[in-house]
Amino acid sequence: MLEQLRGIVQEVNAAKDLQIALDIIVKRVRRSLETQVCSVFLFDADLNSHVLMASEGLNKEAVGHVSLEIGEGLVGLVAKHAEPVNLQDASQHPSFHYIEETGEELFHAFLGVPIIHHRTVLGVLVVQHEDRRRFDESEEAFLVTLSAQLAGVIASAEATEAIEGVSPSGHKISDTVFAGISGAPGVAIGKVIVVFPKADLSQVPVRQAKDVAGEIEYFARGLNKVRDDMKELHEGLAGKVAEEERQLFDVYLHMLDDDALGNEVVELIEQGNWAQGALAEVANQHIATFEGMSDPYLRERAVDIKDLCSRVLFYLQEGEEVKTEYADDTILVSDELTPAMLAEVPAEKLNGLVSIKGSGNSHVAILARTMGIPTVMGAVDLPINLLDGKEVILDGYKGEIIGNPSEPVTERYINTIKEQDELIAGLQELKDLPCETADEHRVHLWVNTGLMSDIAQSLEQGAEGVGLFRTEIPFLLSERFPSEQEQTRIYKEQLEAFSPMMVTMRTLDVGGDKALSYFPIEEENPFLGWRGIRVTLDHPEIFTAQIRAMIRASIGLENLQIMLPMISNVNEVNSAMQLIKRAHRELIQEGLQVKFPPVGVMIELPAAVYQTRALAKMVDFVSVGSNDLTQYLLAVDRNNPRVASLYSAFHPAVLHALYHVVQDAQDEGKQVCICGEMAGDPGAAVLLMAMGFDILSMNAATLLKVKSVIRSVSLDAAQDLLDQVMQMEDAQMIRSAVDLTLYNAGVDRLLRSSRTN
Ligand code: PEP
Ligand code: MG
Question: Mind listing the pLDDT tens digit for each residue in 542-566?
Fold first, then answer.
């Protein structure tokens, strides 16, 4: 059974398009279940109906023509309840809807199961039989399992057609929405530029060849280089391995021959594809076919093809040194965006960002917010390989990408962009005004920084200090650990730029979703593993160099404070303190006039929440990292789009934890700050102010928005709101109550609708 399931899924995976995939499904399922009919109905939003897309057993002419409206017939019933319907005699059921063209009157037994992807019913898979008998339990279980596995493949095939402007039943469509998660608010319209990692066949985008003959020649050269490598390997192995194994290389060499893979690639290039794209398409097709074979030996050959073609791809990419040409209105799309990719695009050309992987609180989304670039994360169904060069609309408020935009929709979004620009321009007036409520309660707004470009932007927005300098960002952009001197230069630039304002430098916080290419950490559960202070305490040489660089950089400025990330117990603080004291002592022994800086801890683990008092006693200040605190309290990976809807900083558990931290820190007489992303959410900021946080630290792009909202409310109203929400049990209700308060205070729609966390 498992073998059959696997075989069907693999074969469907290898299908070139949706129709071929569906035809394979109906053929293979009918055979596996030894039934007489298997059909697939898919929901077509354009027709608002379930369309018969493929069938083995029903009249062929009905395929593509027969459709059932929502809720109509047994298919409608399965879709409506999102549950299987298993009947001995379908015609006796009250929902049965006879359609003459299909010829289904001959069949009595009916089993329909929903095809569900991300809680959405895409369609219904049906089997039917002449006999009046119920399909048995194992048949039903088989179909349910298969449908669950096929849903993703069908969704992705549908998305591939949708981006080309075609609905499942072949109608021309526009404004196809691909859902993701809001990464940074704002709207952008522009041309997609796909960036992809090297030597990865699965991620090469389809692109037009600029010079067909040149691409063919270029491909031939790459192929020849691999042939030479193979011959060399072949000769080098003489006498070392069995002759049969050596002969495998001959098989490889044949695969590269003109009448095999090579020829197929050239044909695709002649049709206008660039060499890399043509190679990837042919390779992926063959890999999928081999992976779907039942013979284990043949299945293994998929690995050989992948290896061989990756070698050719390597030469194609190495030879070309492709300089990505960024359009003036670039929407940068990648499977997994990295800070380095962002840094490569000229700022004036970057309109928007899309990452297939990651979620709203991934570090790359945080960077995007800091840069003020509308971003969508976790757009898992976006057919990335087909996007290059396409015009799209990116809605960073809702977290959506709209393909094939129609004129009216584009017009509407152009208006939102105008509204957005006007709002931002209007906020500039607040830059030099204090952040105080209508009843004159003063709140301090600091910024989170990391990139050098953040400095100018922060100062322009009227920041009053730096609550979090993410020192790992310069580490992430480097190709090795920066030396103590290099670090000193970077830190000095920060401290000087903000002097006399305080700058909170966090010690290196890598691990989780922040991986240094030159210091890889491979773990099953990276967010529960070797992260932040755990790494640096295990590598005191890295920690000490960083502390020395920070203290050295602060000479004559005295505006440094140091902050420790991922603290889970008092011993970590003790150990870190000793290392800081030692570094300080060493610098004094070197004859430098250095002051001992204030030191603080981040409260970002649930354990730390309940040890706030003990931790606060040991340091000068505490600062809540609500991004991680939310992830750990709710057990929701901040990077995983699948569970993103569960990630909410408005969850009552999060709010109660925050309130607890503020009260304990105040009882110890220590300053309490919050530097997680929620501080930059205008609605959340109102609650945080009411709780009593001394400092809200956020990305510079949101600073004036928060200031504007705080200036529109009174502390009294904010405290009433806090009292009210602390009694509530549900994040959504809390969010609504906050929104209502902002609405009543006359806050603009674009300031209210940031992310939903
Ligand atoms: C946090 O966790 O809230 C925080 C500020 O740190 P980071 O987002 O860098 O993990
Ligand atoms: Mg953190």
Answer: 999 999 999 999 999 999 999 999 9
